[in-house]
Amino acid sequence: MNQQKVAIVTGSSRGIGAAVAQRLAADGFAVIINYSGSAAAAETLAQQLLQQGRQAMAVQADVSDPAAVRALFDAAERTFGGVDVLVNNAGIMVNASIGETDDASFDRQVAINLKGSFNTLREAAKRLRNGGRIINFSSSVVGMLQPTYGVYAATKAAVEAMTSVLAKELRGKNITVNAVAPGPTATDLFLNGKPQELVERLSKLAPLERLGQPQDIAAAVAFLAGADGGWINGQILRANGGII
User: Fold this and answer.
1) Residues 21, 27, 181, 240: is their CA dihedral positive or negative?
2) 114: Cβ–Cβ under 8 A, 6 or more apart, which residues?
3) Who's near 147: CB < 8 A, 6+ residues apart?
4) What is the 3-state secondary structure (H, E, C) of 53-65?
5) Which residues contact 107 (CB under 8 A, 6 or more apart)?
């Protein structure tokens, strides 16, 4: 009998992360739904998956805190016996020009997007089972480089660099390391506060002339986490409908 595979999905109480958790659960993974502040949403999602006959557990951890990340992996190992897949979805974005970015928003984006990814990558490098998969989250802004995304793009460019380096460092462990780089995606977080005219303009940027859906991004993650993604390693997959 094949051992059940176990996936940690950071920042998965809502939006793209929740869609990824749902898809991996549907694909047969036991899923750890990690959250920082949204306890109710994470617990609700875990209960929904359990009611569907899936294996799921919500675990609070601030990814910017190394001790919390170690505890997150501990909880996964204690409950499900090990970890096979890490999906580094947790992240924040503060839109501001470089000249107008304050120290607090700079530090917060670096702490969560960059240090948070580093914290989980460091743990995964030591603890993932043989044949595991690491899937980081970058962003298509790394290619588009629009005004007001300077600090955010910088943190995601750093994640892409670590993705390529870690793929090489894990030689001999049969663990792949890749990143998914979404474009504009229709989540509550993305749509909130944007006028309809702007949403429509953004949806027309890609040649496919629509916004991405969380399920589109989850499908890309599922490919990299599943059997068909086994020969993909050290790559950045831009899941954006052709926007760049």
Assistant:
1) negative
2) 155, 158, 159
3) 97
4) CCCEEEEECCCCC
5) none
**Region class of 151: left (phi > 0), else alpha (psi between -120 and 50), else beta:** alpha
Is there a catalytic annotation at residue 35? no
Contacts of 13 (CB under 8 A, 6+ apart): 33, 35, 38, 39, 41, 42, 45, 58
Per-residue pLDDT in tens (0 to 9) along the chain, 244 residues: 468 999 999 999 999 999 999 999 999 999 999 999 999 999 999 999 999 999 999 999 999 999 999 999 999 999 999 999 999 999 999 999 999 999 999 999 999 999 999 999 999 999 999 999 999 999 999 999 999 999 999 999 999 999 999 999 999 999 999 999 999 999 987 888 889 999 999 999 999 999 999 999 999 999 999 999 999 999 999 999 999 9
Q: Which residue is catalytic, options 152, 167, 233, 241?
A: 152
Q: Is 132 exposed, middle or buried (0-12, 13-18, 19+ CB in 10 A)?
A: buried
Q: Which domains does the chain have, with CATH numbers?
A: 6-237 (3.40.50.720)
Report if pTM > 0.90. Answer: yes
User: CB count, 10 Å around CB of 175?
Assistant: 23
Whether 214 contacts 18, CB under 8 Å: yes
Rounded distance between C-alpha atoms, residue 223 and residue 229, angstroms: 5
CA–CA dist 71, 74 (Å, integer): 5
The residue to which tokens 């006959």 are assigned: 53
